[in-house]
């Protein structure tokens, strides 16, 4: 007797003439197919799209930077002449630079009465400060007006990623035009290293920061008021990393199989219950008529 491999068929076929189509079954089948199509398209959209996963760790991510951070500053002082505006930089490594001019530009405002300062410079990865002041001016003005608007203050490379919402330019739009003209302004910054890794494994390094500020009137040892705009910074040991990821293919296939199998199973149970109930109701009706 020949071995029949068909014995292992667990999907036995029922002849068509032994099946009975119903309107309820057709309606459930159509709803079932539409539901499967909706879930499949939703899963396909999620599979094609990338997700951003973030993690925290303690490390210096950009070791090739030479211990430097690039800073971009754009600030307007509408009531202070450009000849008086200067940038000073100092830190705990002994750096003390007064009147930094490299990669900086001063644009006159209000008929040369005010000034817009734009500068790009580097700072060391140690606590320190940089400040806009009149310290580098040849002659100190009598009443320097330090009211200002900060247009931009960023650290490191600019990240152009829609899915990442961070505080990369937290001071943008800071308006201190209504403050005391002779007041000094302290912005205390906590800089957080940030890494973004795309699907190809390429990493970009930037920095977010939190900010607190205070306003006060400071007097020199001679009793004169010499206001300044201070940006005091310190680096956080915690690094934030954003990684682009895509759902694995095996997970997508598993989910699709679960959707199809689960939907058909539940639809079959619903159809069986409805059919059994309708047959029982018919028998009851026939019993009443007889």
UniProtKB/TrEMBL annotation:
Its biological purpose is as follows: Plays a role in transport between endoplasmic reticulum and Golgi.
Principal localization reads endoplasmic reticulum
Where does the source fall among the domains of life? Eukaryota
* Coiled coil stretches, renumbered: none
Q: Report whether Transport shows up as a keyword of the record.
A: yes
Q: Name one GO cellular component term.
A: endoplasmic reticulum-Golgi intermediate compartment membrane
Q: What is this protein called?
A: Endoplasmic reticulum-Golgi intermediate compartment protein
Q: What residue ranges are annotated as transmembrane?
A: 20-41, 249-270
The Endoplasmic reticulum vesicle transporter N-terminal domain covers which part of the protein? 5-97
What's the family? Belongs to the ERGIC family.
Query: Which Pfam families does UniProt cross-reference here?
Result: COPIIcoated_ERV, ERGIC_N
Q: Entry's InterPro entries?
A: Erv (IPR045888), Erv_C (IPR012936), Erv_N (IPR039542)
The biological process GO terms on file are: endoplasmic reticulum to Golgi vesicle-mediated transport; retrograde vesicle-mediated transport, Golgi to endoplasmic reticulum
Asked if the record carries the keyword Membrane, the reply is yes
Domain named Endoplasmic reticulum vesicle transporter C-terminal is located at 108-271
Q: What is the recorded membrane topology of this protein? A: Multi-pass membrane protein
UniProt entry keywords in alphabetical sequence: Endoplasmic reticulum, ER-Golgi transport, Golgi apparatus, Membrane, Transmembrane, Transmembrane helix, Transport
Q: Which organism is this entry from?
A: Erpetoichthys calabaricus
Compartments where found:
Endoplasmic reticulum membrane; Endoplasmic reticulum-Golgi intermediate compartment membrane; Golgi apparatus membrane
């Amino acid at each position: 007797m020949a071995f029949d491999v068909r014995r292992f068929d667990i999907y036995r076929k029922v002849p068509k003439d032994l099946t009975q189509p119903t309107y309820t079954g057709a309606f459930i089948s159509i709803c079932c197919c539409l539901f499967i199509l909706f879930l499949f398209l939703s899963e396909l959209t999620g599979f094609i799209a990338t997700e951003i996963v973030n993690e925290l760790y303690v490390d210096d991510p950009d070791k090739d930077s030479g211990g430097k951070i690039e800073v971009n500053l754009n600030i307007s002082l509408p009531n202070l002449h450009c000849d008086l505006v200067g940038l000073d930089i100092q830190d705990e490594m002994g750096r003390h630079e007064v009147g930094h001019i490299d990669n900086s530009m001063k644009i006159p405002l209000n008929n040369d009465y005010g000034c817009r300062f734009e500068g790009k410079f580097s700072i060391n990865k140690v606590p320190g400060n940089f400040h806009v002041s009149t310290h580098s001016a040849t002659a100190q003005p009598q009443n320097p007006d330090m009211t200002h608007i900060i247009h931009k203050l960023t650290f490191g490379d600019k990240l152009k990623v829609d899915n990442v919402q961070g505080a990369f330019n937290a001071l943008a739009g800071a308006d201190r035009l209504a403050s005391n003209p002779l007041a000094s302004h302290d912005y205390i910054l906590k800089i957080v290293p940030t890494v973004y890794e795309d699907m190809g494994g390429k990493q970009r390094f930037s920095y977010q920061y939190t900010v607190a500020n205070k306003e006060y009137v400071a007097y020199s040892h001679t009793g004169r008021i010499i206001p300044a705009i201070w940006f005091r910074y310190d680096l956080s040991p915690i690094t934030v990393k954003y990684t682009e990821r895509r759902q694995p293919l095996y997970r997508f296939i598993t989910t699709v199989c679960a959707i199809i199998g689960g939907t058909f199973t539940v639809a079959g149970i619903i159809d069986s219950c409805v059919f059994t109930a309708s047959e029982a109701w018919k028998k009851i009706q026939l019993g009443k008529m007889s």
